[in-house]
Structures are given as C-alpha cells and as structure tokens.
Specification:
- The structure is a single chain.
- The chain is mostly helical and 77 residues long.
- It has a domain of 45 residues.
- The N and C termini lie far apart (50 Å).
Length: 77
C-alpha cells in the first residue's frame, strides 16, 4: 500500500496468519509471528517478481504477434 509520501507500508497479515494456523494443510504451520511475517514478505516479493515477468512476456508476445496479424490480414484482402 502506498502512502501519500510514496513509500510502501505493509501491515502484519493477521488474517493469513490465523488461516494458516487453522485451515492450511498444504504448508507447514508457522507459530512464530515474526517468522511468519518474514516468510510472508518473501512470498509477496516472489509473487510480485513473477507477475512482472509474466507482464513483460505478455507485452513482448503482443509486439511480435500484432505485426504478423497485420501482415496476414493485408495479404488476405
């Protein structure tokens, strides 16, 4: 979340912490809130990194596919 000063301020993900204690059987339960917070921030960074890579690849794909589509449509006309 961006504040009006432009810096990012993350709050402790209390809801995710409680859910992983009660319902999440896919990963190991972390009882230490500090360790959970650390792991959560790492996972958030990984998701952001993956999202940026996916967006970059989709943009590159569009730039390569669009000229081909334009060329094919002009040949068909």
């Amino acid at each position: 979340m961006l504040t009006k000063h432009g810096s990012s301020k993350l709050r402790f993900p209390l809801w995710q912490f409680l859910i992983q204690l009660l319902f999440d059987s896919t990963s190991k339960t972390v009882l230490n809130p500090c360790l959970f917070w650390h792991n959560y921030k790492i996972q958030l960074l990984e998701r952001c990194w993956n999202y940026e890579v996916i967006q970059l690849l989709e943009d590159c794909w569009q730039k390569e596919v669009e000229p081909e589509l334009l060329t094919q449509s002009s040949v068909q006309n």
